[in-house]
Amino acid sequence: MNDTDTAAPAALDLALPWRHRFADLGPAFFTELPPTPLPEPHLVSLNAPLAQALGLDPARLRQDDAVRAFSGSLPIEGARPLATVYSGHQFGVWAGQLGDGRALLLGELDTPAGPMEIQFKGAGRTPYSRMGDGRAVLRSSIREYLCSEAMHGLGIPTTRALIVTGSPQPVIRETVESASVVTRVAPSFIRFGHFEHFSANGLADELRRLADFVIDAFYPGCREAGGNPYARLLEAVSARTADLLAQWQAVGFCHGVMNTDNMSVLGLTIDYGPFQFLDAFNPAHICNHSDHGGRYAYHRQPNVAYWNLFCLGQALLPLMDDQQQALDALEPYKTRFPAALTQRMGAKLGLADTREGDAALIEELMQLMAKDAVDFTILFRRLCDALEGAAEPVRDLFLQRESFDAWAARWRERLQAQPGFDAAATAAAMRRVNPRIVLRNHLAQIAIQRAEQGDFGEVDRLLKALSAPYDERKGEDDLAAFPPDWAQQIEISCSS
Ligand SMILES: Nc1ncnc2c1ncn2[C@@H]1O[C@H](COP(=O)(O)OP(=O)(O)OP(=O)(O)O)[C@@H](O)[C@H]1O
Ligand SMILES: [Mg+2]
Questions:
Q1: Which single residue of 164, 197, 252, 302 could bond 278 by disulfide (Cβ 3.0 to 4.6 Å)?
Q2: Per the structure, how many domains does the chain have?
Protein backbone atom coordinates (compact mmCIF):
# COMPACT_ATOMS: atom_id res chain seq x y z
CA MET A 1 0.00 0.00 0.00
CA ASN A 2 1.47 3.40 -0.87
CA ASP A 3 0.77 6.75 0.76
CA THR A 4 -1.89 7.86 -1.69
CA ASP A 5 -4.10 4.86 -0.87
CA THR A 6 -4.60 6.02 2.70
CA ALA A 7 -4.57 9.78 2.12
CA ALA A 8 -7.89 11.64 2.32
CA PRO A 9 -9.23 12.59 -1.11
CA ALA A 10 -7.71 15.85 -2.37
CA ALA A 11 -11.07 17.15 -3.54
CA LEU A 12 -14.79 16.65 -3.01
CA ASP A 13 -16.17 14.83 -6.00
CA LEU A 14 -19.92 15.24 -6.29
CA ALA A 15 -19.81 14.26 -9.98
CA LEU A 16 -21.33 17.63 -10.86
CA PRO A 17 -21.77 18.81 -14.46
CA TRP A 18 -19.78 22.04 -14.18
CA ARG A 19 -19.60 24.58 -16.99
CA HIS A 20 -17.56 27.76 -17.01
CA ARG A 21 -19.19 30.17 -19.40
CA PHE A 22 -18.21 33.25 -17.38
CA ALA A 23 -14.57 32.12 -17.30
CA ASP A 24 -14.72 31.72 -21.07
CA LEU A 25 -15.15 35.51 -21.33
CA GLY A 26 -11.41 35.76 -20.78
CA PRO A 27 -8.91 36.86 -18.16
CA ALA A 28 -9.87 40.55 -18.28
CA PHE A 29 -13.01 39.62 -16.38
CA PHE A 30 -11.61 37.88 -13.31
CA THR A 31 -8.72 36.45 -11.34
CA GLU A 32 -8.63 32.75 -10.65
CA LEU A 33 -7.71 31.79 -7.11
CA PRO A 34 -8.67 29.16 -4.57
CA PRO A 35 -10.69 29.96 -1.45
CA THR A 36 -8.72 30.45 1.76
CA PRO A 37 -9.51 27.54 4.10
CA LEU A 38 -11.24 28.13 7.41
CA PRO A 39 -10.15 26.15 10.48
CA GLU A 40 -12.51 23.61 12.07
CA PRO A 41 -15.48 24.25 9.81
CA HIS A 42 -18.95 23.14 10.82
CA LEU A 43 -22.39 23.14 9.22
CA VAL A 44 -24.66 25.98 10.27
CA SER A 45 -27.62 25.27 8.00
CA LEU A 46 -28.42 23.55 4.74
CA ASN A 47 -31.26 24.63 2.48
CA ALA A 48 -32.42 21.10 1.66
CA PRO A 49 -35.30 22.10 -0.66
CA LEU A 50 -32.90 24.21 -2.71
CA ALA A 51 -30.35 21.38 -2.79
CA GLN A 52 -33.05 19.09 -4.12
CA ALA A 53 -34.19 21.64 -6.68
CA LEU A 54 -30.62 21.78 -7.93
CA GLY A 55 -30.39 17.98 -8.13
CA LEU A 56 -28.00 17.75 -5.16
CA ASP A 57 -28.38 15.20 -2.37
CA PRO A 58 -28.91 17.04 0.95
CA ALA A 59 -27.58 14.10 2.98
CA ARG A 60 -24.36 14.15 0.97
CA LEU A 61 -23.95 17.89 1.55
CA ARG A 62 -24.17 17.37 5.30
CA GLN A 63 -21.14 15.06 5.36
CA ASP A 64 -17.86 16.29 6.76
CA ASP A 65 -15.97 16.50 3.49
CA ALA A 66 -18.80 18.53 1.94
CA VAL A 67 -18.83 20.90 4.90
CA ARG A 68 -15.08 21.35 4.50
CA ALA A 69 -15.53 21.96 0.78
CA PHE A 70 -18.30 24.52 1.30
CA SER A 71 -16.14 26.44 3.76
CA GLY A 72 -13.33 26.62 1.23
CA SER A 73 -11.15 24.06 2.96
CA LEU A 74 -11.36 21.28 0.35
CA PRO A 75 -11.47 21.85 -3.41
CA ILE A 76 -14.58 20.79 -5.30
CA GLU A 77 -13.87 18.62 -8.32
CA GLY A 78 -14.61 20.48 -11.54
CA ALA A 79 -15.09 23.88 -9.89
CA ARG A 80 -12.89 26.74 -11.09
CA PRO A 81 -12.94 29.42 -8.36
CA LEU A 82 -12.51 32.98 -9.53
CA ALA A 83 -13.17 36.50 -8.32
CA THR A 84 -14.77 38.76 -10.93
CA VAL A 85 -13.87 42.40 -11.38
CA TYR A 86 -16.47 45.15 -11.38
CA SER A 87 -16.69 48.83 -10.52
CA GLY A 88 -19.58 50.98 -9.43
CA HIS A 89 -21.24 54.02 -7.94
CA GLN A 90 -21.53 53.83 -4.18
CA PHE A 91 -23.92 56.25 -2.47
CA GLY A 92 -24.08 58.23 -5.71
CA VAL A 93 -20.32 58.63 -6.08
CA TRP A 94 -18.08 56.86 -8.59
CA ALA A 95 -16.04 54.38 -6.56
CA GLY A 96 -13.82 53.00 -9.34
CA GLN A 97 -12.69 49.41 -9.31
CA LEU A 98 -14.34 47.09 -6.87
CA GLY A 99 -14.89 43.46 -7.61
CA ASP A 100 -15.49 40.37 -5.71
CA GLY A 101 -13.55 41.25 -2.61
CA ARG A 102 -14.95 38.29 -0.75
CA ALA A 103 -17.00 36.30 -3.26
CA LEU A 104 -15.71 33.50 -5.47
CA LEU A 105 -17.55 32.08 -8.44
CA LEU A 106 -17.09 28.32 -8.63
CA GLY A 107 -18.73 27.89 -12.02
CA GLU A 108 -22.11 26.98 -13.37
CA LEU A 109 -24.17 23.83 -12.98
CA ASP A 110 -26.82 22.49 -15.27
CA THR A 111 -29.61 21.85 -12.81
CA PRO A 112 -33.24 20.77 -13.13
CA ALA A 113 -34.00 24.46 -12.39
CA GLY A 114 -31.82 25.58 -15.33
CA PRO A 115 -28.19 26.72 -15.41
CA MET A 116 -27.13 28.08 -12.03
CA GLU A 117 -23.92 29.76 -10.95
CA ILE A 118 -22.54 28.78 -7.56
CA GLN A 119 -20.68 31.35 -5.52
CA PHE A 120 -18.98 31.44 -2.13
CA LYS A 121 -19.22 34.63 -0.09
CA GLY A 122 -16.64 35.09 2.65
CA ALA A 123 -14.07 32.64 1.29
CA GLY A 124 -11.01 34.84 1.78
CA ARG A 125 -9.14 37.73 0.26
CA THR A 126 -8.99 38.33 -3.49
CA PRO A 127 -7.06 40.87 -5.58
CA TYR A 128 -10.16 43.09 -5.26
CA SER A 129 -10.43 42.99 -1.48
CA ARG A 130 -8.90 46.46 -1.00
CA MET A 131 -8.73 46.96 2.80
CA GLY A 132 -11.11 44.10 3.56
CA ASP A 133 -10.32 40.71 5.06
CA GLY A 134 -12.29 38.71 2.51
CA ARG A 135 -14.46 37.27 5.23
CA ALA A 136 -18.15 37.34 6.11
CA VAL A 137 -19.30 36.97 9.70
CA LEU A 138 -21.83 34.40 10.87
CA ARG A 139 -24.35 37.17 11.64
CA SER A 140 -24.39 38.54 8.10
CA SER A 141 -24.28 35.10 6.47
CA ILE A 142 -27.38 34.04 8.40
CA ARG A 143 -29.15 37.26 7.43
CA GLU A 144 -28.35 36.69 3.77
CA TYR A 145 -29.27 33.00 3.93
CA LEU A 146 -32.64 33.64 5.56
CA CYS A 147 -33.60 36.74 3.68
CA SER A 148 -32.81 35.39 0.25
CA GLU A 149 -35.04 32.43 1.05
CA ALA A 150 -37.71 34.79 2.37
CA MET A 151 -37.63 36.69 -0.92
CA HIS A 152 -37.85 33.49 -2.89
CA GLY A 153 -40.78 32.37 -0.75
CA LEU A 154 -42.50 35.67 -1.48
CA GLY A 155 -42.03 35.08 -5.20
CA ILE A 156 -39.53 37.93 -5.60
CA PRO A 157 -36.56 37.36 -7.92
CA THR A 158 -33.41 36.85 -5.88
CA THR A 159 -30.10 35.11 -5.50
CA ARG A 160 -30.56 32.16 -3.15
CA ALA A 161 -28.41 30.48 -0.57
CA LEU A 162 -27.68 26.76 -0.39
CA ILE A 163 -25.56 26.30 2.69
CA VAL A 164 -23.94 28.26 5.49
CA THR A 165 -20.80 26.94 7.14
CA GLY A 166 -19.10 28.43 10.18
CA SER A 167 -15.71 28.37 11.85
CA PRO A 168 -14.32 29.56 15.18
CA GLN A 169 -11.89 31.81 13.27
CA PRO A 170 -12.27 35.31 14.72
CA VAL A 171 -13.22 38.16 12.43
CA ILE A 172 -12.93 41.76 13.56
CA ARG A 173 -15.89 44.02 12.97
CA GLU A 174 -17.24 46.42 15.65
CA THR A 175 -16.70 43.46 17.94
CA VAL A 176 -14.93 40.16 17.45
CA GLU A 177 -17.23 37.80 15.56
CA SER A 178 -16.70 34.46 13.88
CA ALA A 179 -16.14 33.59 10.22
CA SER A 180 -18.67 31.98 7.96
CA VAL A 181 -19.12 31.15 4.29
CA VAL A 182 -22.45 31.34 2.54
CA THR A 183 -22.83 29.50 -0.76
CA ARG A 184 -25.14 31.42 -3.07
CA VAL A 185 -26.93 30.36 -6.20
CA ALA A 186 -28.23 32.43 -9.12
CA PRO A 187 -28.50 32.15 -12.88
CA SER A 188 -25.89 34.93 -12.96
CA PHE A 189 -24.20 37.27 -10.51
CA ILE A 190 -23.45 39.90 -13.16
CA ARG A 191 -24.13 43.41 -11.84
CA PHE A 192 -24.54 46.85 -13.42
CA GLY A 193 -21.04 47.45 -12.06
CA HIS A 194 -19.52 44.83 -14.35
CA PHE A 195 -20.59 46.92 -17.35
CA GLU A 196 -19.50 50.15 -15.70
CA HIS A 197 -16.05 48.67 -15.14
CA PHE A 198 -15.25 47.94 -18.77
CA SER A 199 -16.92 51.11 -20.02
CA ALA A 200 -15.11 53.41 -17.60
CA ASN A 201 -11.79 51.83 -18.52
CA GLY A 202 -12.38 52.28 -22.24
CA LEU A 203 -12.33 48.51 -22.83
CA ALA A 204 -14.86 48.52 -25.67
CA ASP A 205 -14.20 44.96 -26.85
CA GLU A 206 -14.68 43.54 -23.39
CA LEU A 207 -17.78 45.66 -22.87
CA ARG A 208 -19.29 44.26 -26.06
CA ARG A 209 -18.28 40.72 -25.14
CA LEU A 210 -19.98 41.04 -21.78
CA ALA A 211 -23.13 42.52 -23.28
CA ASP A 212 -23.24 39.84 -25.98
CA PHE A 213 -22.82 37.16 -23.32
CA VAL A 214 -25.67 38.54 -21.22
CA ILE A 215 -27.93 38.89 -24.26
CA ASP A 216 -27.19 35.42 -25.61
CA ALA A 217 -27.52 33.71 -22.24
CA PHE A 218 -30.40 35.62 -20.67
CA TYR A 219 -32.06 38.05 -23.07
CA PRO A 220 -32.00 36.40 -26.52
CA GLY A 221 -35.12 38.37 -27.45
CA CYS A 222 -33.00 41.53 -27.61
CA ARG A 223 -31.51 40.40 -30.92
CA GLU A 224 -34.81 39.27 -32.35
CA ALA A 225 -36.58 42.53 -31.44
CA GLY A 226 -34.71 44.52 -34.13
CA GLY A 227 -32.87 47.80 -33.70
CA ASN A 228 -29.82 48.13 -31.49
CA PRO A 229 -29.63 44.98 -29.32
CA TYR A 230 -27.80 46.82 -26.52
CA ALA A 231 -30.57 49.40 -26.30
CA ARG A 232 -33.03 46.52 -26.14
CA LEU A 233 -30.92 45.01 -23.36
CA LEU A 234 -31.10 48.24 -21.38
CA GLU A 235 -34.85 48.33 -21.90
CA ALA A 236 -35.22 44.72 -20.76
CA VAL A 237 -33.09 45.24 -17.65
CA SER A 238 -35.10 48.38 -16.88
CA ALA A 239 -38.35 46.43 -17.16
CA ARG A 240 -37.12 43.74 -14.77
CA THR A 241 -35.80 46.36 -12.38
CA ALA A 242 -39.14 48.20 -12.42
CA ASP A 243 -40.94 44.98 -11.58
CA LEU A 244 -38.43 44.16 -8.85
CA LEU A 245 -38.83 47.55 -7.20
CA ALA A 246 -42.61 47.24 -7.30
CA GLN A 247 -42.31 43.86 -5.60
CA TRP A 248 -39.95 45.18 -2.94
CA GLN A 249 -42.19 48.13 -2.17
CA ALA A 250 -45.32 45.98 -2.03
CA VAL A 251 -43.89 43.82 0.76
CA GLY A 252 -42.31 46.75 2.59
CA PHE A 253 -38.78 45.63 1.76
CA CYS A 254 -35.98 48.12 2.00
CA HIS A 255 -32.61 47.33 0.41
CA GLY A 256 -29.95 49.07 2.42
CA VAL A 257 -27.21 49.55 -0.17
CA MET A 258 -28.61 50.13 -3.64
CA ASN A 259 -25.22 50.92 -5.13
CA THR A 260 -24.77 50.07 -8.80
CA ASP A 261 -22.52 47.18 -7.82
CA ASN A 262 -25.46 45.71 -5.93
CA MET A 263 -27.84 45.80 -8.89
CA SER A 264 -28.30 42.57 -10.83
CA VAL A 265 -28.64 42.70 -14.62
CA LEU A 266 -31.20 39.93 -14.25
CA GLY A 267 -33.35 42.01 -11.92
CA LEU A 268 -32.58 39.80 -8.93
CA THR A 269 -32.35 40.99 -5.36
CA ILE A 270 -28.64 40.78 -4.57
CA ASP A 271 -26.48 41.72 -1.58
CA TYR A 272 -28.34 41.20 1.64
CA GLY A 273 -26.41 43.62 3.78
CA PRO A 274 -28.42 46.15 5.78
CA PHE A 275 -31.89 45.26 4.47
CA GLN A 276 -35.16 45.52 6.37
CA PHE A 277 -38.76 44.54 6.10
CA LEU A 278 -40.58 47.51 7.56
CA ASP A 279 -42.33 47.03 10.87
CA ALA A 280 -44.26 50.26 11.56
CA PHE A 281 -44.80 51.96 8.21
CA ASN A 282 -42.64 54.98 7.66
CA PRO A 283 -42.04 55.79 4.00
CA ALA A 284 -38.87 57.69 4.86
CA HIS A 285 -37.44 54.77 6.80
CA ILE A 286 -33.67 54.30 6.44
CA CYS A 287 -32.65 50.74 7.19
CA ASN A 288 -28.88 51.22 6.89
CA HIS A 289 -27.31 52.88 9.90
CA SER A 290 -24.38 53.95 7.69
CA ASP A 291 -26.71 55.76 5.24
CA HIS A 292 -26.58 59.14 7.00
CA GLY A 293 -28.18 61.11 4.16
CA GLY A 294 -31.03 58.65 3.69
CA ARG A 295 -30.18 58.12 0.03
CA TYR A 296 -31.63 54.62 0.25
CA ALA A 297 -34.71 55.44 2.33
CA TYR A 298 -37.68 53.20 1.44
CA HIS A 299 -39.58 55.83 -0.56
CA ARG A 300 -36.49 56.85 -2.52
CA GLN A 301 -35.69 53.38 -3.79
CA PRO A 302 -37.74 53.47 -7.01
CA ASN A 303 -35.94 56.67 -8.08
CA VAL A 304 -32.57 55.31 -7.02
CA ALA A 305 -33.20 52.27 -9.22
CA TYR A 306 -33.81 54.62 -12.14
CA TRP A 307 -30.62 56.53 -11.32
CA ASN A 308 -28.75 53.22 -11.30
CA LEU A 309 -30.30 52.23 -14.63
CA PHE A 310 -29.11 55.58 -15.98
CA CYS A 311 -25.57 54.59 -14.96
CA LEU A 312 -26.01 51.29 -16.76
CA GLY A 313 -27.24 53.19 -19.81
CA GLN A 314 -24.22 55.43 -19.68
CA ALA A 315 -21.96 52.38 -19.47
CA LEU A 316 -23.61 50.87 -22.53
CA LEU A 317 -23.37 54.09 -24.60
CA PRO A 318 -20.25 52.98 -26.53
CA LEU A 319 -22.39 50.16 -27.94
CA MET A 320 -25.23 52.42 -29.04
CA ASP A 321 -25.69 54.83 -31.92
CA ASP A 322 -26.34 57.88 -29.76
CA GLN A 323 -27.37 59.02 -26.32
CA GLN A 324 -31.01 59.31 -27.32
CA GLN A 325 -31.16 55.56 -27.87
CA ALA A 326 -30.22 54.99 -24.24
CA LEU A 327 -32.67 57.61 -22.96
CA ASP A 328 -35.46 56.07 -25.00
CA ALA A 329 -34.65 52.63 -23.59
CA LEU A 330 -34.89 53.99 -20.04
CA GLU A 331 -38.14 55.86 -20.60
CA PRO A 332 -40.53 52.90 -20.08
CA TYR A 333 -39.33 52.53 -16.48
CA LYS A 334 -41.21 55.71 -15.62
CA THR A 335 -44.57 54.19 -16.49
CA ARG A 336 -43.83 50.52 -15.87
CA PHE A 337 -42.83 50.96 -12.22
CA PRO A 338 -45.95 52.87 -11.10
CA ALA A 339 -48.24 50.56 -13.08
CA ALA A 340 -46.57 47.49 -11.55
CA LEU A 341 -46.81 48.99 -8.08
CA THR A 342 -50.48 49.90 -8.45
CA GLN A 343 -51.23 46.41 -9.74
CA ARG A 344 -49.42 44.74 -6.83
CA MET A 345 -50.83 47.02 -4.16
CA GLY A 346 -54.26 46.60 -5.73
CA ALA A 347 -53.91 42.82 -5.51
CA LYS A 348 -53.03 43.21 -1.83
CA LEU A 349 -56.39 44.94 -1.42
CA GLY A 350 -58.23 42.26 -3.37
CA LEU A 351 -58.66 44.34 -6.53
CA ALA A 352 -58.90 42.05 -9.53
CA ASP A 353 -57.96 44.76 -12.04
CA THR A 354 -56.75 48.34 -12.07
CA ARG A 355 -59.34 51.08 -12.38
CA GLU A 356 -59.31 54.84 -12.22
CA GLY A 357 -59.06 55.92 -8.61
CA ASP A 358 -57.18 52.82 -7.45
CA ALA A 359 -53.84 54.60 -7.17
CA ALA A 360 -55.50 57.25 -4.97
CA LEU A 361 -57.20 54.60 -2.83
CA ILE A 362 -53.85 52.91 -2.25
CA GLU A 363 -52.04 56.18 -1.61
CA GLU A 364 -54.61 57.25 0.97
CA LEU A 365 -54.21 53.99 2.88
CA MET A 366 -50.44 54.39 2.85
CA GLN A 367 -50.80 57.91 4.23
CA LEU A 368 -53.05 56.72 7.04
CA MET A 369 -50.61 53.92 7.81
CA ALA A 370 -47.71 56.36 7.89
CA LYS A 371 -49.56 58.80 10.16
CA ASP A 372 -50.31 56.12 12.72
CA ALA A 373 -47.11 54.09 12.20
CA VAL A 374 -49.16 51.00 11.44
CA ASP A 375 -47.36 47.69 11.07
CA PHE A 376 -47.02 47.04 7.33
CA THR A 377 -47.34 43.26 7.26
CA ILE A 378 -49.99 42.90 9.96
CA LEU A 379 -52.17 45.59 8.41
CA PHE A 380 -52.56 43.80 5.09
CA ARG A 381 -53.07 40.43 6.73
CA ARG A 382 -55.80 41.86 8.96
CA LEU A 383 -57.48 43.45 5.95
CA CYS A 384 -57.94 39.89 4.63
CA ASP A 385 -59.67 38.94 7.88
CA ALA A 386 -61.82 42.08 7.72
CA LEU A 387 -63.45 40.81 4.56
CA GLU A 388 -64.62 37.77 6.48
CA GLY A 389 -66.21 39.67 9.32
CA ALA A 390 -63.27 40.38 11.64
CA ALA A 391 -63.38 44.15 11.10
CA GLU A 392 -62.18 45.29 14.53
CA PRO A 393 -58.60 43.94 14.56
CA VAL A 394 -57.58 45.98 11.54
CA ARG A 395 -59.43 49.05 12.77
CA ASP A 396 -57.60 48.76 16.08
CA LEU A 397 -54.30 49.32 14.33
CA PHE A 398 -55.22 52.97 13.73
CA LEU A 399 -55.38 55.87 16.12
CA GLN A 400 -57.51 57.88 13.73
CA ARG A 401 -60.25 55.29 13.44
CA GLU A 402 -62.78 57.56 11.70
CA SER A 403 -60.30 58.25 8.92
CA PHE A 404 -59.70 54.54 8.55
CA ASP A 405 -63.46 53.83 8.60
CA ALA A 406 -63.99 56.32 5.80
CA TRP A 407 -61.23 54.70 3.78
CA ALA A 408 -62.52 51.19 4.48
CA ALA A 409 -65.99 52.15 3.31
CA ARG A 410 -64.57 53.30 -0.03
CA TRP A 411 -62.49 50.14 -0.27
CA ARG A 412 -65.52 47.90 0.29
CA GLU A 413 -67.50 49.88 -2.24
CA ARG A 414 -64.73 49.41 -4.80
CA LEU A 415 -64.61 45.65 -4.09
CA GLN A 416 -68.35 45.24 -4.31
CA ALA A 417 -68.30 46.86 -7.73
CA GLN A 418 -66.25 43.90 -9.00
CA PRO A 419 -68.37 41.52 -11.04
CA GLY A 420 -69.32 38.44 -9.01
CA PHE A 421 -67.56 39.74 -5.88
CA ASP A 422 -67.21 37.00 -3.29
CA ALA A 423 -65.77 38.05 0.08
CA ALA A 424 -64.34 34.65 1.04
CA ALA A 425 -62.71 34.09 -2.36
CA THR A 426 -61.28 37.62 -2.32
CA ALA A 427 -59.92 37.14 1.20
CA ALA A 428 -58.29 33.88 0.10
CA ALA A 429 -56.74 35.59 -2.93
CA MET A 430 -55.48 38.40 -0.70
CA ARG A 431 -53.85 35.89 1.64
CA ARG A 432 -51.87 34.57 -1.31
CA VAL A 433 -50.23 37.98 -1.84
CA ASN A 434 -50.09 39.34 1.71
CA PRO A 435 -47.48 37.40 3.67
CA ARG A 436 -48.10 36.41 7.25
CA ILE A 437 -44.40 36.12 7.96
CA VAL A 438 -41.52 38.27 6.78
CA LEU A 439 -37.94 38.29 8.07
CA ARG A 440 -38.26 41.10 10.57
CA ASN A 441 -35.00 42.34 12.03
CA HIS A 442 -35.75 40.98 15.47
CA LEU A 443 -36.52 37.49 14.14
CA ALA A 444 -33.16 37.38 12.39
CA GLN A 445 -31.54 38.74 15.55
CA ILE A 446 -32.97 35.99 17.76
CA ALA A 447 -31.81 33.30 15.32
CA ILE A 448 -28.35 34.90 15.12
CA GLN A 449 -27.94 35.15 18.89
CA ARG A 450 -28.79 31.46 19.28
CA ALA A 451 -26.51 30.51 16.39
CA GLU A 452 -23.66 32.41 17.99
CA GLN A 453 -24.17 30.11 21.01
CA GLY A 454 -24.01 27.07 18.71
CA ASP A 455 -27.76 26.44 18.44
CA PHE A 456 -28.87 26.55 14.81
CA GLY A 457 -32.42 25.33 15.43
CA GLU A 458 -33.99 28.77 15.08
CA VAL A 459 -32.22 29.35 11.75
CA ASP A 460 -33.72 26.12 10.43
CA ARG A 461 -37.17 26.92 11.82
CA LEU A 462 -37.13 30.38 10.23
CA LEU A 463 -35.91 29.03 6.92
CA LYS A 464 -38.87 26.67 6.78
CA ALA A 465 -41.41 29.31 7.83
CA LEU A 466 -40.08 31.91 5.39
CA SER A 467 -40.17 29.53 2.47
CA ALA A 468 -43.98 29.46 2.71
CA PRO A 469 -44.78 32.91 4.11
CA TYR A 470 -48.42 33.07 3.03
CA ASP A 471 -49.50 29.92 4.83
CA GLU A 472 -51.01 29.78 8.27
CA ARG A 473 -49.31 27.09 10.34
CA LYS A 474 -49.56 26.20 13.98
CA GLY A 475 -46.57 27.02 16.15
CA GLU A 476 -45.54 30.06 14.15
CA ASP A 477 -47.62 32.77 15.82
CA ASP A 478 -44.49 34.30 17.33
CA LEU A 479 -43.11 34.82 13.82
CA ALA A 480 -46.26 36.62 12.70
CA ALA A 481 -46.57 38.84 15.78
CA PHE A 482 -45.75 42.53 16.33
CA PRO A 483 -42.08 43.23 16.89
CA PRO A 484 -41.03 43.62 20.52
CA ASP A 485 -40.01 47.10 21.71
CA TRP A 486 -36.33 46.21 21.58
CA ALA A 487 -36.59 45.70 17.80
CA GLN A 488 -36.47 49.49 17.40
CA GLN A 489 -33.02 49.56 18.94
CA ILE A 490 -31.52 47.19 16.37
CA GLU A 491 -29.02 49.01 14.21
CA ILE A 492 -27.94 47.38 10.99
CA SER A 493 -24.93 48.94 9.32
CA CYS A 494 -22.75 48.05 6.33
CA SER A 495 -20.54 46.05 8.69
CA SER A 496 -20.86 42.44 7.66
N1 LIG B 1 -14.76 42.00 4.35
C2 LIG B 1 -14.52 42.27 3.08
N3 LIG B 1 -13.36 41.91 2.51
C4 LIG B 1 -13.10 42.19 1.22
N5 LIG B 1 -13.95 42.82 0.41
C6 LIG B 1 -15.12 43.20 0.91
C7 LIG B 1 -15.47 42.95 2.27
N8 LIG B 1 -16.70 43.47 2.48
C9 LIG B 1 -17.10 43.99 1.31
N10 LIG B 1 -16.16 43.84 0.37
C11 LIG B 1 -16.23 44.29 -1.02
O12 LIG B 1 -16.60 45.65 -1.03
C13 LIG B 1 -17.54 45.91 -2.05
C14 LIG B 1 -18.78 46.56 -1.50
O15 LIG B 1 -19.33 45.75 -0.50
P16 LIG B 1 -20.85 45.37 -0.40
O17 LIG B 1 -21.20 45.45 1.01
O18 LIG B 1 -21.65 46.04 -1.42
O19 LIG B 1 -20.85 43.85 -0.94
P20 LIG B 1 -20.83 42.50 -0.20
O21 LIG B 1 -21.75 42.52 0.94
O22 LIG B 1 -19.46 42.06 0.10
O23 LIG B 1 -21.29 41.46 -1.24
P24 LIG B 1 -22.23 41.12 -2.43
O25 LIG B 1 -22.59 42.36 -3.16
O26 LIG B 1 -21.35 40.21 -3.20
O27 LIG B 1 -23.37 40.42 -1.80
C28 LIG B 1 -17.82 44.60 -2.74
O29 LIG B 1 -17.11 44.58 -3.93
C30 LIG B 1 -17.30 43.56 -1.78
O31 LIG B 1 -16.78 42.43 -2.44
MG1 LIG C 1 -22.22 44.20 -2.61
A1: 252
A2: 2
